Amino acid sequence: MVAAAKRFWKETDVTGTDNGWMIMLDGRAVKTPAGRPVALSSQKLAEAVGAEWKAQEEKIIPATMPHFRYVVTAIDRVTPQRGDIINQLVGFSGNDLICYRDPDQSELASEQSTGWNPLLEWAESQHGIKLRIGAGVMPVKQDAETLLTAENWLSDKDDFRLAGLYNLISLSGSFIIGVAIEQGRLAVEPGFDLAFLDELWQARKWGDDAEAEDRRQAIKQDMIEAKSYLSLLD
């Protein structure tokens, strides 16, 4: 286990520069682990990141710095791998969990349709993303035009927004749910419930265990942090 780094500065400031808003520690600009400068276009995000740095006490605890973590993801991961990140997210649209209905449990299938169909209709009407629905676990082949529409939509997003979207989509397992949360169509709590509809239904029917609940709560918290980060980009 790597020991937590000690706090090495006294004063934390957020400063506007020609390159963007920067977080200064005793007058020195914060950089990413890869050594890239942290220059942000959003003052609100810069102030949130600055507050995370300021709140560190004797040791730096990365887990208490979610906004900074997303900034680092955007700069060190998304920017140099933008094409791959977009391709991965398009893959979720091609195999979105909300396109599958349970062929054996009619009660569950009904809940799936009630919860997911309005999102599919919204995605088509608002974004032109029309996904086919199937039953069981066999993959549903989506139209190439639909995947291209999803790719074009993602390509319009900057690297910082893609960093938050990546987590919302990958954590939920659904391109549509992730986008709906990012766009404000869904709040995080109901979005989480829809993403984990099958698992929550099984837990109600057959009982749950503490480990599974802890895992879900950790995912929900990650989704809350992703939405908080995205809200600061507006």
Describe this protein's structure.
The chain has 234 residues and is mainly α. It folds into 2 domains: 12-68, ATP12-like (2-Layer Sandwich), CATH 3.30.2180.10; 82-231, ATP12 ATPase (ATP12-like fold, Orthogonal Bundle), CATH 1.10.3580.10. The chain is 58% helix and 8% strand. The chain has 10 helices and 5 strands. The chain has helices at 43-55, 66-78, 82-94, 106-127, 144-155, 159-172, 175-183, 188-195, 197-206, 210-231, and strands at residues 12-17, 20-25, 28-29, 100-101, 134-135. The chain has a 3-stranded antiparallel beta sheet with strand order 1-2-3. It has a two-stranded parallel sheet with strand order 4-5. The protein is globular. The model has no long low-confidence stretch (mean pLDDT 95).
Which descriptors would you attach to this protein?
234 residues; ATP12-like; ATP12-like fold; 10 helices; 58% helix
